[in-house]
## 1
Amino acid sequence: MARKTIMTRITSEEKMKQINPYNLRLKEDFLMYLKSVQRSPGTIYGYDSDLNIVFTYILDNLDNKEFQKLTKRDLIGLQNWMVDNGNSSARIRRVKSAISSLSNYCENILSDDDPEFDGYRSIVRKIENPPLQPVRDKTVWEEKELEALLNQLTANQDYERACYVALAMYGGRRKSEICRFKVSDFDPDKLICDGALYKSSPILTKGNKYLECYTLAKKVQPYLDDWMNQRKELGIDNEWLFPSRVDPNGHISITTINSWTKRFTRMTGKDFYFHSLRHYFVSALSKAGIPDNVVVQILGWSSSEMFNVYNDNSKDDQIGAFFSNGDISVPEHKTLGDI
């Protein structure tokens, strides 16, 4: 069964017309600012949706007051309302992040020019977040399960999907990042580390950052070759590795990628979502003996904290790698090709 997430649905076309025009104008100015500093369309869309929820809550519960007049008590009320309506702690943090970003815009940009914001200070960060709690069952993959999926896709000559899955398995990138891979990112001159890794050109990633993405070359090469050959047969001439279904010059959309997950869930018999392959990749690197700090560099994380989030190997498995036959054991050296 597909994973389910409770969403906050209080907005409507009718209510949007009733929201304080001042708040709507503030939101539009803020979104225009984000666009001017080149935040990703996905980030801007998310802020737009979340702020619509916030302003609708203000309409229904806070007399439609202007955003800058919100108090800490008002924000606590919003947070409590989201908790009571079954929203996850991660969802609440996301909405609060949108409020915080808008507040920072008001404090750092508008306070210098607009008398309405003279002396304004953001108060969102002073309100403690609810503790993060998992609300979905995590899917942990065995290599043989994912290899079986790749074999089925290949047997069906579904080379595009097989290539996409392989890149997720053996590169650990997010969906949006894989969508932004170009054909040129897998040219021979992109091979490094004696041919073990492909290193892409910088790709736009979460947080409006550009990162070079690494992929295990030998693991993905058969699926890349199949897809590139099929592209040639189909006459596809597009710089993006996975071309758009509607824009001849664009790349594939997240909506299309999301539609694939239902098929993969049926094929594997397990709840499939692409982020689980990010966990798989990190866990595979760790299990192969790649040091934590190297995994962090491969994924482009700014700290080692994320390693523990994505490493699904149990504590016993990690400790057990260094002990056998009742004694300390030095793990056998492995190469990236053994992963």
## 2
Amino acid sequence: MSAKIISGTEIAKQIREELKQEVQELKDKHGLTPGLVTILVGENPASISYVTAKQRTAHDLGFHSVQDNQPEDISEDDLLNLIKKYNEDTSIHGILVQLPLPKHVNESKVLYAISPEKDVDGFHPVNVGKMVIGEQCFLPCTPHGILEMLIRSGTETSGAEVVVVGRSNIVGKPIANLMLQKREGGNATVTICHTRTRDMAFHTRRADILIVAAGRPKVITADMVKEGVVVIDVGVNRIGKTPEGKAILCGDVDFDAIKEKAAAITPVPGGVGPMTITMLMKNTVQAAKQSAGLV
């Protein structure tokens, strides 16, 4: 048996087409253009790449998109004042501050300064709290993307044994919370594994759905999963370069071996990655609609 490939690239493309139509309708019917600002501090190459991709996607969808580049030595107060300016700008519905920030800037203070109504990353404590109790909010983008992949691939989650490897605030904790809720893509029985889990394989072998966000290459091997499992691999690890200098990427699971046992699996690259930016765009459209009282 070889697993069905759950392509984040294809699912993200579907969602972006839906968003493109929705944005055009908002413009035509309500004179409303979703606005997104991405704030980049310094010149970290990876951050520049991420921000460029976000801005390109926003532009392709017809957003009002603003790229605000700031020097590495910007003071914390100046950065907070910049966020305050965008909080008050009615043409901007989503604010994203690209992480990491320089060491002299308190990341938590900056993220908490973003208005919860414009926190399209879903990191503000107000949105995190609403997520936990199941209220309407901006869901964090990667977990939101995972839910969409499971739903759109036809994976049954209700009553399923779900094992999440990793307990980060960005992926592990929120996806575990979302999947145990009474919602589409939820109603699962969820176990979280982490670096202090004594016998990880005992838990992963029970999984009907295995979500791995450990940050270590190929940490999950074929002997750690059962036949017919659905695997969502969140990891992106650089394990070398091709002779041409291109990065060689792999996930947190041993894809080649596990795809022979799994019912479905996400690839790396082309799996969860494309979904994260897409869900950021979905949140921005939601923020625009909320600002106009349309939802």
## 3
Amino acid sequence: MTKTYKEYEIGVQTTDELISKLAKLSASSPETEDLLREILTTAVKLGLESSDRGDLKLINNALKELRYSFKIFAPYRNVKKVIIFGSARSANTSSEYKMAEEFSRKITAKGYMIVTGGGGGVMEAGNKGAEHGKEFALNIRLPYEQKPNPYIDEKQKLINFKYFFTRKLVFIKETDATTLFPGGFGTNDEGFEAITLIQTGKSRPRPILLMQPQGSTYWTQWKKFLSDQLVKNGFIKKEDFNLFKIITNVDDAVKYIEDFYRIYHSIRYASGLTVLRLNKTLSDKTLKLINQNFKDILTKGDIKLSPPTNEEIKKQEYLDLPRLVMKFNQHDYGRLLELINVINKD
């Protein structure tokens, strides 16, 4: 094996050779061998450097949780999935429970899968409404109230987490849209994190829908706080409101998610360019429109149709799809979401 990562070694020849041999024996493919070698090197470095059992226990548990989660989700990576967040304390007679159950039933009927937190309340409603076999539950082990709900049909799709941070990572990594129903600190934490990840470019663009039952003012009051305190004080831009949408009707929510991926397919950063992969070639009219209206988010140049980039060709990434490329400033993600919505109306 060629030592591509010589700079990241233990520095002891016999140890580094053993790590290389183990990586070669364990790698599922030649393309993953170098990364597996780094992971093994990190594990050995931890053993040599840390005498704190608590540190090693944390890393061990986190790595095991992530490994198992990736294994469970791997067969379903080509199926779009929607998160359902909301209060574990919502009664089954509450308007948010009923709305979540209806939404889950209708979105899974469209071919999507749903991912809940596995507990009671709104999470239970999500699992209850889902079509059989189209659900996951990512449960968090707590000393109170968070027991798996009885509507998780396939127990192999129930994953129990010790840590919130690994659970939240899997929620975002393995899904394509987020719905937030009224809830407490946990729901707000998950909502703010989902928005922040897109606002900072750490997560792919996605629909984030704030699901507000008829008669409720939960999310409109929440948005008013953002407007009165965050926007007025310059902590966020008003364009950041494009990162989420308040929805009061289940059918509108299903349509919004479907429309988001109607033409827009996925995003890729390659060779200093932002690449938007599309499900169909954009019309000249819409291409002209977005170049007129979104110059402010480009560092230079225009938004152009393009063949796959060299990096995409090398990795064989969706080579049959048309593309737009641009010099996006990688800052104004609220405006980027607005651009995607314009594209989807083509």
## 4
Amino acid sequence: MLVFRTVAELNAHLEKAKLFDYTIGFIPTMGALHEGHMSLVKCSKLNKDYTICSIFVNPIQFNNPLDLERYPKTEEADLALLEAAKIDVVFLPSVQEIYPSNDLPIPNFHFGQLTQVMEGAFRPGHFDGVIKVMYRLLSIVKPKRLYMGLKDFQQQIIIGKMLEQMEYPIHLIPCETTRDIDGLALSSRNSLLTPAQRKVAPILYKILKEVKSRAKQVPLGELKHLVNFKLTASGFKVDYFEVVNTQTLIPVQSFEDAPSIVACVAAYLGDIRLIDNILLK
């Protein structure tokens, strides 16, 4: 496993080994790695990609400074996990390496309403930061395949739209959400939950599974009211629960309104914000 901390070092390695001619599989992360991240590495290795993982806590996608300050940083443990997974390269850049100037240009991508709903509505500026860092990382690594988890459903839809508009082809590989034995979606933020909160957190996915089982029989508006009531009664503070078209992220009013539908939720337990989703159709 090779570790590079500068763009120049990484590019020199890729050029010298002529790796831009091979299939590079890329997994962008913000560290505090867990089995969800490792599942993305496994997908890349199964595809026989030359696998590169980045670890970079992107400051400009945090609309809450406190969230950035307490985001877990576990570099030593992260590197040990990646070495055990036999990853080829880890890219560990500084903020200055990723953003060498304040006005680093990016193309004028068009996303329509994709960046304005759900996470976009509750985290102003979040997707601006995500799009900027993803464009910068992809421009540096130039992968053939990009691996992203479906837990951040809206994010991977937006990045997929960005890839369609980029000047060179990159294939997005969405990977299934990895869950703990009790159903809680693995997340770097789970480590910040108190023991009491950790016992409550799996209710989020339990309620989503109930939505899936009842979506054909119960009006979606009624289900939405029920979800908000149950989450609030369980101690969550709900940002949103939406049932949307998987491609446009526009809310649907009935189960027949779109060929593919997903339910997405974001809610707080104390100060910790959890997100999850479940495909309904």
